[in-house]
Amino acid sequence: MVVGKPRTEGVWSAQEVKRPMDPFVFLLTLILAFLAEYVDASLGMGFGTTLGPLLLILGFAPSEIIPSLIVAQFISNICAVIFHHRFGNVDLRFGSAQLKVALILSGTGVFGSLVAVLLSRFIGNEGIKSYMALSVVMFGFYLLFKTLFNRKTVMIFSWGKIIGLGLFAAFNKGLTGGGYGPIITSGQILTGISGKSAVGVTAFSEAVTCVAAVLAYLHSGSLPESWLLFGVSLGSVISVPFSALTVRKLPDVLIRTAIGLFSIIIGLLLFAKF
């Protein structure tokens, strides 16, 4: 495989010719996955947005990249939930308020995604892209404003806000295929949840949203080459304890600021793609 020459053929084909492992590309893939998941598990967003384009540059096809990202995100999010809970960033014990939030976001995610999939056929691709980028940027700017310039304003928690956020974030993901992390993480903070807890809850709800996709790929037999899947998954899992420890050590105001800034960056990058 030639590094730097993206493959475009064979999209969604399960019959692609398996290639021998390239040790250099495998190591590079592992490192990139580590860095992407470190950001994602620390801020609740950015894994697929950053790693996907990099894997395209390395020469992998979308049919190889997307299943690898989904499976790796499923595994790493489960690990992130465990470590965030263990380090005290989020309380996911049975009966806790934060577990209820995670379950509500997961449940509304199913409904919101189904509605979005039904509506997506009536909306053009450019409209979908613009909608996703604009919503992420707006959430980021609003969170940043609340954190830096309007600190005296108390963000009051309510279950109605959580249900609305879950529906909106899932609708966004079902309509655009992305943007779930930035909206669900920054949105939780705006509903009154701490930055540390928001990151842990996002890991939980995203793991649930990945279940259906993982099962579908396993059933279809269209998973990519084992060494690519293993490299992306291994790099992601290794980074989780470090990111969870980072969240534990950082002050909440810094986490909220970083989440707001990164949401804006992701939204602008999405705009730049078209």
Please explain how this structure is put together.
The protein has 274 residues and is an all-alpha fold. The protein is 75% helix and 0% strand.
Helix proportion? over 70%
What is the first-to-last residue Cα distance? 28 Å
Major beta sheet summary: none
Contiguous uncertain segments of 5+ residues: 1-17
Class based on secondary structure composition and strand pairing: mainly alpha
Number of E-state strands: 0
Strand content: under 5%
Order of H and E elements: HHHHHHHHHH
Task: Figure out the total of helices.
Answer: 10
Rg, nearest Å: 18 Å
Task: State the shape.
Answer: globular
Kindly state the mean pLDDT as a whole number?
77
Write a short abstract of this structure.
With 274 residues, the protein is mainly alpha-helical. The chain is globular and about 55 Å long. The chain has ten helices and no strands.
